[in-house]
Design a protein that fits this description.
Length: about 450
């Protein structure tokens, strides 16, 4: 009994409409102090207000009516993307009620003022839709669903708390990966910004011999097979397959730099997942190597069923330890463990030319054994400051420093290309697109 009473008073709330009406009654009593004839009207207003509050309480608590809430969350959330969340509200009241819904979102999102107001007709169901955009991987916990129910009178509010605590993991951006996968399957990657690459010559491997049809390249005619069959026969080629493509991710302290709410490491992880999926669709083998002051985690290049799931799990657990990355250790590992020539896509960041020159001997060592693509980041805000017009002394100083850093980055690109490495200098938001462009270009040219 005591618990029931306690629960009632915890859920019984007064609305702003009640306080406005109560304030009006107080004003009547103040006026009645100076004009006594108004006192009877004030008593009447107070009685009416009390009666309406009682009636409102009976409407909300007197019968079997109530509002039940159920949150629907995906099994996994996609990092850096808008993930849909739904809350189903079912009313058993015989009249329309107005509800305020406040979901307790994970603390990592720092979401406030998320209440949604809506009206639910008698005995009907309504759904609240909203999205969350996580910016770090890990476990995210949703708390309770808080519902505030008011009747048409709107003087009393019934507080309903649904204990719907849910823990959901946030994985690397599988929504972005699926988007690229869908576009690649339908040959519409250019809609995602991936430019089509024209294939020149026979940079592909032999597949089979077939009969000539009008429109075939005459340079593909197989004259020996033609002589044996008595009909024109041509060689059919296909893209080279089963080439190892390794996403090499720098997990050192330089990758902890934030951009658009996410670290450079998380941007690199999302791009690596998209690249791995496209590589598997192109019949290549995708692998992973992460490094900082040590090597790991590592995933051998494979093309088996379920490999992309293992790729996701390794990326989900990857995190930076704020240590200085040792490229010498990476070069040694690649030389001893990745002996078949393939493509290494190295996601890292070089702030200055001097930071690059310290690692050049190890990058050259990687280049002797593999095709190396260095992917590092451009700061769009810094580039905008370098192009901005200076008006004050402070603006001149900021513009000069920004121009210096922009020149340094361009010199890094030139230095990498002079040393035989492919360089992709890109803003983080275009990372996946430009990385895929570079991979498809190298594959079309027969480099991969």
């Amino acid at each position: 009994m005591i618990a029931t009473i306690r629960s009632f008073f915890r859920s019984f709330l007064l609305t702003p409409r009640f306080f406005v009406a109560g304030g009006s009654v107080v004003v009547l009593y103040v006026v009645a102090f100076f004009f006594p004839p108004v006192l009877s009207g004030a008593h009447t207003a107070l009685a009416v207000l009390g009666g309406l509050v009682g009636l409102d309480g009976i409407l909300l608590y007197g019968g079997e009516g109530q509002v039940a809430a159920q949150r629907v969350v995906p099994e996994r959330l996609s990092n850096g993307d808008d993930n849909p969340i739904r809350i189903h509200l079912r009313s058993t009241y015989p009249f329309a009620v107005r509800c305020g819904v406040a979901d307790e979102q994970p603390i990592q999102l720092q979401a406030r003022d998320t209440e949604t107001r809506l009206t639910i007709p008698a005995g009907r169901t309504r759904t609240v839709h909203y999205t969350v955009r996580p910016t770090r991987r890990g476990q995210y916990t949703f708390g309770t669903v808080n519902v505030f129910v008011t009747s048409p009178l709107g003087l009393v509010e019934r507080y309903v708390q649904e204990d719907a605590e849910t823990s959901v993991p946030v994985y690397p951006s599988f929504l972005q990966m699926r988007a690229y996968e869908l576009m690649a399957a339908s040959n519409r990657l250019e809609e995602m910004g991936v430019t089509p690459v024209r294939q020149l010559g026979h940079t592909m491997e032999f597949d089979h011999i077939r009969e000539y049809v009008v429109g075939d390249d005459r340079r593909s005619i197989n004259w020996k097979a033609t002589a044996r069959r008595g009909d024109l026969m041509v060689n059919e080629y296909r893209d080279e397959r089963a080439q190892p493509v390794y996403c090499v991710i720098n997990a050192g302290r330089v990758m902890e730099m934030p951009f658009d709410g996410m670290t450079l490491l998380d941007h690199s992880i999302n791009a690596s997942l998209a690249l791995a999926r496209i590589a598997l669709m192109k019949q290549d083998r995708a692998g992973l190597v992460a490094f900082s002051d040590r090597i790991g985690p590592v995933l051998p290049a494979q093309r088996s069923e379920g490999h992309i799931r293992a790729f996701q799990e390794q990326l989900y657990q990857l995190d930076t330890d704020f240590q200085e990355s040792e490229y010498a250790r990476l070069a040694t590992y690649v030389r001893t463990h990745l002996q078949r020539r393939g493509l290494l896509v190295l996601f890292t960041n070089f702030m200055t030319r001097s930071s690059l020159e310290r690692q050049l001997p190890y990058l050259r060592a990687l280049k002797r054994q593999h095709t190396v693509v260095i992917v590092f980041f451009e700061n769009p805000k810094l580039s905008a400051q370098a192009r901005a017009r200076a008006q004050t002394v402070e603006d001149i100083y900021v513009k000069t420093m920004a121009e210096r850093f922009v020149r340094e980055k361009k010199e890094v690109v030139r230095t990498l290309r002079r040393n035989g490495c492919y360089a992709v200098h890109t803003p983080p938001e275009q990372l996946s697109t430009r990385t895929l462009n570079q991979y498809l270009e190298l594959k079309a040219r027969g480099v991969v």
